């Protein structure tokens, strides 16, 4: 378990591991004196903090970052049932990219619809990016066959992952994979 200290005056976050304590010391935190237990082993320097400067940025900066080409090492290749190979970025990698460049993003499933013939399911997913100057969202759909075996997860999970990746592509994330032949 780790403790997280947020120092608003310097806009920083500090995480330290719990250690055995043997006596009390006092520090100033947010302008107030706070009693702390002093660990038996030395804690890292409190000035060594992780800046949170990337959390609040204008949308133009966030979009500029997520529109950059995704490294080939993060791109996967799968073969479709028709024999064609398709390059894609797994949903968990897309999630990490958003966490890195747009940490205040949010996503939600807006709708799940089963086809009338009972052969497929479609999911509508919305991704919202929050900047200091505005917020914007993009939605997209993903569809998966209910009869297709193999791969990961159930059909709803597959459709959700597809819709999530496509919604992010509408912001430009991984969009280069859709038109590599033009680059």
Summarize the structure.
With 183 residues, this protein is an alpha+beta fold.
Structure characterization notes:
- This protein is of the alpha+beta class and 183 residues long.
- The chain has two domains: 3-51, no CATH class; 59-182, DNA repair protein Rad52/59/22 (Enolase-like, domain 1), CATH 3.30.390.
- It has three helices and ten strands; from the N terminus they run βββββαββαβββα.
- It has a three-stranded antiparallel sheet, with no helix packed on it. A three-stranded antiparallel sheet has the order 8-9-10. A two-stranded antiparallel sheet has the order 3-4.
- A hairpin with a 2-residue loop joins β3 and β4.
- Residues 1-31 and 46-51 have low confidence and may be disordered.
Keywords:
Rad52_fam, DNA repair RAD52-like protein 1, mitochondrial, 3 helices, DNA binding, 19% helix, 10 strands, three-stranded antiparallel β-sheet, 183 residues, 2 domains, globular, 37% strand, single chain, alpha+beta, Enolase-like, domain 1
